[in-house]
Design goal:
Strand content: 5-15%
Radius of gyration: 31 Å
Number of strands: 9
Low-confidence stretches: 1-5, 563-571
Largest sheet: 7 strands, mixed
Number of helices: 23
């Protein structure tokens, strides 16, 4: 039956024996996920139970509709930061929005993200998952992590911070240093140190789990609440209920823009996670199918009073490390969190806020991938610069505008890579087959009476002038006696009308020098464009060839016939 239902791919072929591995994996996922489920909502000013709700309903929805056996969805620090920025814009948009419950706004944005995912799947634009390059994402997340770190100042110190940005909150806490609640700060720093101690010595118990247990025990013994250390407070013990947020009462344009930003970051980062773990497990990742899984995983929290989620790298890593083999592990983790919500409510109520700040600060620092930044620096200085631009955008303009900066940086990066296509004159090497770049191979020699020139890249409006100038310069510098110029178009994937005009200009320069302009291995799409632009008529249909060798044989034959005719006329 499971094989006949395509929406249950993560459970297809399920065998009862798998439970021996999926149940321990699910328990481990819940243990690691519970602290972050309680902590992450604070980034967006949401109550802690919303994180637990998201960690329950999202994995269930993904298990039904998601294609992967091993991916686990859940709250994500970067997604929460973009969510916080989007919610701030919506609340500030108009006075009426300030009366809306933050949970309702977060739910509406989750539904918006889910709708975008489904629409993207229907339009088959899963390829946009690769739109944000790895360097851009690494830089953007580094900027997001700094924003999260600054956001924990108030939770560490017990001081209400009213300013936004990176520097203003630091200045504000210095001005309010007399109001710092030192027991809160010391306990938060102690828990932060415990997290790093556990990570440094690779304890078998996850650091966030240990911090939650230790914090709750200390809070119960020393009555933290009575001594001024803020605690989580009452958490509803019931299960999440189905409800639809009042979307029509919200500024729809801001909902759409916020959902777009969250979708771009959530899916862009999520597909990187999916492909990273897919390469380890040997599981193929279909970006378009993942859109369905992620869409369902966001619509479910939107209908149950929660917020947008993404693929969780920490939970997926735990799933792989503990031997999970199907989405049953995600279902077990959801059931475990339901039990925690029902039976551990009193313990979670006294969880100290500084402990949650320590968990968030540790998670934020883990988003700064120093190793990857060093690798990018070693591989490409230009890509490193774009990483810094994305980081600077998230810090200087806010996370929501930082998404726009990251996308703009990606566009600039793509244009920069394609604006100056690689090109060069080709020649032959004695004893070797094929053609070789004369600039790269000193032993290569030009073809007698001919010039072969290759362009590796599209000829479009934004680089057509560069291509025209390059070809014109080469055409004007051809040695005397050159009778034909063969453009190798095998690596030209696209030509537009501006590119056609550039090639037409080159054809006129060559015609003025009595040099035949020939094109080899032109794509059908390129041929249609040049046909409609009149370029083929200008250079002659008989000067289009299927390859360089064919072009040179045919043109050389014409030279020979012309030479014989000239000799006969002289006689």
């Amino acid at each position: 039956m499971l094989r006949s239902l395509p929406m249950l791919r993560g459970l297809a072929g399920f065998e009862r024996s798998w439970l021996r591995r999926d149940i321990p994996a699910g328990l481990s996922i819940a243990a690691v996920g519970l602290p972050s489920a309680i902590a992450y909502p604070a980034i967006a000013g949401l109550p802690p139970e919303t994180g637990i709700y998201a960690s329950i309903v999202a994995p269930i929805a993904y298990a039904i509709f998601g294609p992967s056996r091993l991916l686990i969805v859940g709250p994500d620090a970067a997604t929460m930061t973009v969510l916080a920025a989007a919610m701030g814009v919506i609340i500030a948009a108009e006075p009426a929005s300030s009366n809306l419950e933050p949970v309702a706004i977060a739910s509406a944005l989750a539904l918006g993200v889910g709708v975008f995912c489904i629409a993207a799947k229907l339009l088959r634009v899963g390829v946009m998952a690769s739109f944000l390059s790895r360097p851009i994402l690494v830089g953007f997340f580094a900027g997001v992590s700094l924003s999260i770190l600054v956001g924990q100042i108030g939770r560490f110190t017990g001081v209400k911070i009213e300013s936004d940005g990176l520097i203003p909150p630091l200045v504000e806490i210095l001005g309010k240093s007399a109001s710092i609640h030192w027991p809160s700060l010391l306990f938060g720093l102690l828990m932060f140190a415990l997290l790093w101690f556990v990570r440094a010595f690779q304890f078998r118990i996850p650091g966030p789990v240990l911090v939650v247990v230790v914090s709750v025990v200390f809070s119960a013994i020393f009555d933290f609440s009575g001594h001024g250390i803020a605690v989580v407070g009452d958490i509803p013990s019931g299960l999440p209920s189905l409800s639809l947020p009042a979307i029509l009462a919200m500024p729809l344009d801001k909902i759409v823009l916020g959902s777009t930003a969250i979708f771009v970051v959530s899916f862009g980062a999520g597909i990187v996670t999916a492909r990273s773990f897919g390469s380890r497990s040997g599981e193929e990742v279909d970006a378009n199918q993942e859109l369905i899984g992620l869409g369902a995983a966001n619509i479910a929290p939107g209908l149950f009073g929660s917020f947008p989620v993404s693929m969780s790298d920490s939970r997926t890593a735990i799933n792989l490390a503990t031997g999970g083999v199907s989405q049953a592990a995600g279902l077990v983790s959801a059931a475990t969190l339901v039990a925690a919500l029902v039976f551990l409510q009193s313990a979670l109520r006294i969880l100290p806020i500084p402990a949650l700040a320590a968990i968030l600060a540790s998670a934020a620092i883990s988003l700064i991938d120093v190793h990857e930044l060093r690798k990018i620096w070693r591989i490409s200085r230009m890509e490193f610069v774009f990483s810094l631009i994305a980081m600077w955008g998230a810090i200087s303009f806010g996370v929501l505008n930082g998404v726009i900066v990251a996308v703009a940086a990606t566009l600039v990066y793509l244009l920069r890579k394609t604006m100056f296509p690689r090109d060069g004159l080709l020649g032959r090497i004695d004893g070797r087959h094929g053609f070789f770049d004369l600039a790269r191979f000193p032993e290569a020699r030009p073809v007698e009476e001919a010039a072969v020139f290759a362009i590796q890249g599209s000829v479009l409006f934004y680089n057509a002038d560069y291509v025209r100038l390059r070809l014109s310069a080469v055409a004007k510098e051809l040695v005397a006696g050159t009778k034909c110029f063969v453009l190798d178009a095998s690596a030209i994937t696209h030509i537009d009308s501006t590119g056609a005009a550039a090639l037409d200009a080159v054809a006129k320069i060559l015609e003025a020098r009595n040099i035949i302009f020939a094109v080899a291995d032109l794509s059908e799409e390129g041929r249609d464009i040049l046909e409609r632009a009149g370029v083929i008529k200008a250079i002659g249909p008989d000067n289009l060839f299927n390859g360089r060798e064919e072009a040179l044989r045919a043109l050389t034959g014409r030279f020979g016939q012309a030479g014989n005719a000239s000799a006969s006329n002289e006689r």
